[in-house]
Amino acid sequence: MKLSFSQSSISKFKLHITGSKSISNRYLILKAQFPNIELSGLSDCDDTRVLHKALTTLKEKGDEIDIHHAGTAMRFLTAYLSSLPNLEVVLKGSKRMHERPIGILVEAMRELGGHIKYLGSEGFPPLKIHGKSLQKDKISIPASVSSQYITALMLIAPSFKNGLTIYLQSKVTSKPYLMMTAASLKSIGVEVDLQESHIQVHPKTKIEPKTIAVESDWSSASYFYSCLALMDQGEFELSTFQKNSLQGDSKVAEFYKLFGIETRFKGDSILISKKAGVLLPEKIELDLNDTPDLAQTIAVTCLGLNIACNLTGLHTLKVKETDRLVALKTEIEKFGAEVEISNESLQLSPKANLKESVSVQTYQDHRMAMAFAPLAIKVDLTILNPEVVSKSFPDFWEKIKALGIQQNR
After folding, report:
1. Are residues 260 and 377 in the same domain?
2. Where is the Enolpyruvate transferase domain (predicted)?
3. Which residue range(s) make up the domain with 386?
4. In this structure, what CATH number is given to the domain that contains residue 355?
5. pLDDT at 33 (0 to 100)
6. What would the pLDDT profile of 168-207 be if each residue is shown by its tens digit?
7. Among residues 196, 213, 230, which one ends one of the domains?
8. Which entry of 249, 293, 323, 380 is annotated as an active-site residue?
9. Does 8 score more than 70 pLDDT?
10. Known binding-site residue numbers for 3-phosphoshikimate
């Protein structure tokens, strides 16, 4: 898809962003355990649809669940399905999903009494799961690899007879996601004690009927922050968002102050604005350990604004839909800039005059497509395999078209 920008487009507009994938998927696992939870505003992305389908069509014997590229679904279902007595199921995904490690979570489930067999390479999906009634109430798990492993355990912990205490080994990565999980559990009446060294989730056999409205996705909002940062000026109204959000990526509002973007709340919407002539820094340095999904967006914003950056805390990016650090280096350098990466950092040395008509490979990664799309405001480019956005933001291309980013397939 070729992208270009029409300077005559309006710089003021409103749009509604789909519900948070992270919150939606947590509540879907909780609803499976407590059916009297009612959910509104669920994300309409592929990952949530896949998880919802898996949970609503589950059979006891001989079932096979294909979650495609949905990493969250793979982690959450590995734990949840292992806790269902008498269940036999094969859990598989795409080729890339079978390259993404899951050994830490599988070993934790086995230690709790689960029965999981690898059908391919050791430590990786696909998995054959025989559900068991899990009785143990303590587990230790490395906390620096993926917060989703810990969240998966937290979400099934209320069903344990004595609850579950999870001891955290090493520094926690993406801590806001664990806080989101704890808040989701507390919202339905589950008692949770979240500490630096451990998390204790108390047992719960039933809850009062509850209706949950899912907040819109701050990660998706980040691409519109990037668009506005790359424009001379403008104001966008985005809904539906909460001032005290559960989502770690709500920090995008703080980060984009560096690019001259102001955020204010108006009811259940946010107004983001940029004035003409904003003075920008020559370089920014950010630790994104708690918000790694913002790394691609911020790096491309810096590329478009000719700002150097040093982004750290990115060790989890290597095991996402693609190795995002390598992918960022490869694609950014096509525009003429220089990028250095390590196992957990990215340093960008920008270029004032970007190369035109670059084709950006997306590597089956939705965030590569959406992070680079705003760059069309500065330079014509082509996004390859643009349909990958359906993983988290199905109507993304329709939304940014309203900004004047023209699309030719």
Report:
1. yes
2. 55-400
3. 2-19+215-408
4. 3.65.10.10
5. 96
6. 998 888 888 999 999 999 999 999 999 989 999 999 999 9
7. 213
8. 293
9. no
10. 21-22, 26, 146-148, 174, 293, 320
